[in-house]
Amino acid sequence: MATIRVPAQDRVLSEQKAVTEFLAAVGIDHERWTPSRPLAATATADEVLAAYDPEISRLKARGGYVTADVIDVRPETPNLEPMLAKFRREHWHDEDEVRFILEGSGVFFIHPREGEVFAIEVGPGDLIRVPRGTWHWFDLCAERRIRAIRLFQDASGWTPRYTESGVDAGFEPVCLGPSHLAARA
Ligand SMILES: [Fe+2]
Question: How far is the CA of 95 from the centre of ligand 1 (A)?
C-alpha cells in the first residue's frame, strides 16, 4: 500500500483513498491491482504478465503503451549502485513512468512545478503512473529489492533527462514500511 510523505509539512498519508486522491490532484494515477489468478513467488516474467493481462491491456489502451516487461532487482544485482545513482538525481522522461510493484518497495520523490516535494513509497500491489515531463527521482528502500512490471510507450523515451537542480540532495530516501523499521531495529 502506497504512503505519501510531504516532508516540508511533516505530513503523512497512508489511507488508500487519501493517497489516491492526493496523487490524482497532481496528475499521478495510483491503483491497487490483484492478479487474475494465484501467482507463486517463483512465477516467471511471462506468468506474471499473463496474470495481470487484463490490467495491462486496459492501461495499454488508455495510455498508448506498446510494451510491458518485468524488472527484477536484488541486493546482488550487478552494477546496482551505479544504476540507482542514475535515478536518484532529479530528472524527467519524454514518456510516462508506469510501474506495478510485485515485490519489494521503493520511493518516488515528486517535485511539482508549484508546491512542496513529496515522497510516494510504493510496495506490492501498487500501480503508479508518473506522467511524462514530471520532475522526480527514485530510490529503493533498505532491503534493495524490487520486482515490477514496466509499461512503455517507446522505450527510447525512458532515458533520464536531468534537471541538475540539486533539490534531490535535500531529501533522505526514508521508507516508512515494515522492512525499514526492521532494518533500523
Ligand atoms: Fe524516472
Answer: 9
